[in-house]
């Protein structure tokens, strides 16, 4: 990302891959990007990209006949962000470092909030699961969700959200990201076969806040307090059984305790609670069904409260016991 103008190239910086189909004047036609919690390529394929490229080329041809360039803004590059000016600059700026920089600045100035933390909503948060190949085709619509109440059904092709045309999964996220926080009424248009339908999505107060499962994949979670201060390698089914645990009981062996860097206080706090390398963690406040370590870390940050004790179930030297860990503020 070194030298990239963030005012021109706008996308979800947590992603592994984002393709912006643009005019040379800075107009973004289509944002081919996005993923869900299952896999980095959950909504990307060469065949769907090829189709989106063909569709967007037609848009480009029409736009070129009557261009409307966006306002020119002063260049904003990663090197100019305060976080990088206050830290040793890496040789390579990763995309997710942009969110690290924004978050550090916001927390330093005490202006950071959920509105900054939870961006680029997954369409699943409004009850709309989109198809990988169809991109904007509904693979499923969750019962009693805003999408279902608006009338959307499986197989519908979304053509605009909040009056923004949608050709790819990322376009739907761009449109949802632009909707203000809180309750909102968002126009949506879709095709069902050859017939066009239009309705309004009635979005509840907290619709932009994802579940820990939806948020788990995002690197943006790492600087987010409260932090457990430790982590490790998940146990295999065989290792769980050998430890006397059920096969479906998520567990991990503590492989590191954060006693270095700016968050070292969280690791020292975990040590004071009795957390040690090598011990097995098999439950936190009674929850034992974490999908993976990312889910554990997202859940801890999003659901636990600083200053309120958390009960951590551990096994050490074959003995099960429970430790009380009070997350730091």
Describe the structure concisely for a colleague.
The protein has helices spanning 46-65, 82-85, 96-108, 114-117, 146-150, 169-177, 212-215, 237-242, 264-272, 293-303; strands spanning 18-22, 28-33, 128-130, 138-141, 157-161, 164-165, 184-192, 195-203, 230-234, 252-257, 280-284, 310-316, 319-325. It is α+β, with helices and mostly antiparallel strands. The strands form 4 sheets. It has a 5-stranded antiparallel sheet. A 4-stranded antiparallel sheet has the order 6-5-7-8. A two-stranded antiparallel sheet has the order 1-2.
- Give the name of the CATH architecture of the largest domain: Roll
Q: Numbering strands along the chain, what is their spatial order in the largest sheet?
A: 9-10-11-12-13
Q: What is the number of E strands? A: 13
CA-atom Rg in angstroms: 22 Å
Tell me the distance between the termini. Answer: 32 Å
Average pLDDT number: 95
Q: What percent of the residues sit in helical stretches (DSSP H or I)?
A: 25-40%
- Under CATH, the homologous superfamily of the largest domain reads PDZ domain
Q: State the major sheet.
A: 5 strands, antiparallel
- Which regions have little confidence, pLDDT < 50, spanning 5+ residues? none
Give the CATH level 1 class of the largest domain.
Answer: Mainly Beta
Tell me the strand percentage band: 15-25%
| SSE string | EEHHHHEEHEEHEEHEHEHEHEE
CATH topology assignment of the largest domain: Pdz3 Domain
Total helices: the number is 10
Count of discrete domains: 3
Find the structural class using helix and strand composition: alpha+beta
């Amino acid at each position: 990302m070194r030298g990239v103008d963030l005012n021109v190239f706008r996308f979800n910086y947590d992603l592994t891959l984002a393709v912006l189909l643009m005019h040379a004047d800075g107009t973004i036609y289509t944002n081919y990007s996005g993923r869900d919690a299952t896999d980095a390529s959950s909504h990307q394929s060469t065949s769907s990209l090829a189709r989106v490229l063909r569709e967007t080329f037609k848009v480009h041809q029409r736009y070129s006949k009557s261009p409307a360039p966006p306002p020119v803004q002063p260049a904003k590059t990663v090197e100019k962000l305060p976080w990088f000016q206050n830290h040793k600059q890496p040789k390579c700026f990763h995309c997710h470092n942009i969110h690290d920089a924004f978050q550090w600045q916001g927390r330093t100035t005490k202006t950071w909030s959920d509105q900054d933390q939870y961006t680029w909503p997954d369409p699943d948060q409004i009850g709309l699961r989109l198809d990988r190949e169809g991109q904007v085709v509904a693979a499923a619509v969750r019962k009693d969700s805003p999408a279902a109440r608006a009338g959307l059904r499986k197989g519908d092709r979304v053509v605009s959200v909040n009056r923004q045309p949608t050709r790819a999964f990322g376009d739907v996220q761009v449109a949802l990201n632009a909707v203000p926080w809180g309750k909102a009424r968002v126009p949506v248009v879709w095709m069902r076969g050859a017939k066009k339908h239009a309705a309004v999505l009635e979005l509840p107060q907290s619709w932009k806040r994802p579940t820990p499962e939806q948020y788990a994949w995002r690197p943006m979670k790492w600087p987010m307090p409260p932090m457990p201060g430790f982590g490790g390698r998940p146990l295999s089914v065989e290792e769980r059984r050998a430890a006397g645990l059920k096969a479906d009981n998520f567990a991990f062996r503590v492989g590191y305790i954060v006693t270095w860097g700016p968050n070292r206080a969280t690791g020292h706090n975990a040590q004071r609670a009795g957390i040690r390398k090598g011990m097995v963690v098999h439950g936190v406040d009674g929850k034992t069904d974490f999908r993976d370590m990312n889910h554990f870390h997202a859940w801890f940050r999003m659901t636990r409260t600083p200053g309120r004790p958390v009960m951590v179930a551990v096994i050490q030297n074959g003995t099960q016991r429970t430790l009380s860990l009070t997350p730091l503020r």
